[in-house]
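Notes to self after the Tuesday call (sharing in case useful).
The group wants a holo model before anyone commits to mutagenesis around the pocket. I volunteered. Ligand is pyridoxal-5'-phosphate. Logging inputs and output together so the record is complete.
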Amino acid sequence: MATHSVDTVCVQGGWRPGDGDPRQVPIYQNTTWKYDTSEHMGKLFDLEESGYFYTRLANPTNDAVAAKIAELEGGTAAMLTSSGQAANFFAVFNIAGAGDHVVASSAIYGGTYNLLAHTMKRMGLECTFVDPHCSDEELEAAFRPNTKCVFGETIANPALAVLDIERFAAAAHAHGVPLIVDNTFPTPVLCRPLEWGADIVTHSTTKYMDGHAASVGGAIVDGGKFDWTAYPEKFPGLCLPDESYHGVVYTERFGLEGAFITKATAQLMRDLGSIQSPQNAFLINLGLESLHLRMARHAENGRKVAEYLAAHPRVAWVRHPSLEGDAEFELAAKYLPQGSCGVVSFGVAGGRAAAETLMKNLKLGQIATHVADARTCVLHPANATHRQMNDAELAAAGIGADLIRLSCGIEAADDLIADLEQALAQV
Ligand SMILES: Cc1ncc(COP(=O)(O)O)c(C=O)c1O
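Result:
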């Protein structure tokens, strides 16, 4: 469906029903497939033929939904994972392990930070974090001979920093490594990182893609352009025989367009599990069918609410990439010209106590540990995700005690603003 717009792919991409097939992608709620001969099964195990044998590795429902996400991002292959955390772990671990090094933006989701800074460190992988707006010299200095990839988020959660994808891609490529971009917040409706030079895109589909707070999931998309074979010494897992698969060389057998995802499926799904349940894939697909409509409203509501808050005398500060005057405004204008996302962060005069009063009085914006949902939700990190930190530690982490993260849903902007108005009046 390469000739169709993102809107059309949202609705009809991925699943192509044949004559008499169900119009909606069916849920293959089975673990196993039956074959007539052991020889046939053997060919599947040797990756000589494509087909399904066990849902821990692959399932047709998941593959149809992954194919839609690949089309949306303009990639050549994709896979679904059980969560966004699993997607980011698999994307990095597929090419980097013990003794290797990763360069990552410091403005990333806290779970991904923990994964790279702590859990993967225990696996022998080191990570250097750089400010996404660091100088070229600082970025250059972060690379080591054993660096295997660069990682960042298009729009960081919760910092709302916009990644200069072209700059980070150029730096990664100059060192012979790919750029992995977590595109959860804008989704391919508002930004397609592969078109700006990124090589691999990941998603927490739990957020806007699902959009209804119904299912946790993740996705990895390969752009199919990074030439692993130009650096076989850096990427032996893709360029040399895989002994655990009868010596298959992924780049030779599946080409640049298929090697990365086939290896992640054949090795990592096989050994680590983390497949998405077909039931959840079905739910994500329902979300994808309206993603183009919802993202436009989320982005519009985020901008309108940010503009309202910026003009309110009781609001101390506001951050939203599409808000004129925001530190990220220029990068957002380049990478996110149709809008950025529905997430706004702000602080009210009066600090922590004022934030608590405001949140308690919101009626539509309900308190939830979530973002990117059709229903507006709100979180006070100092009382939730960062509760263990005191005010000084919060300030050092760049998260003020007054910070409120508001995720604008797809309700009417006027109603969200009226809700904020009455809550602010009580602060
Ligand atoms: C940008 C980003 N990436 C990854 C994740 C992790 O995704 P999940 O919660 O689906 O594991 C999140 C979760 O909030 C996120 O915001």
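Two things stood out.
Residues 101 and 334 are 30 Å apart (CA to CA).
Residues 6-287 form a domain with the Aspartate Aminotransferase; domain 2 fold (CATH 3.40.640.10).
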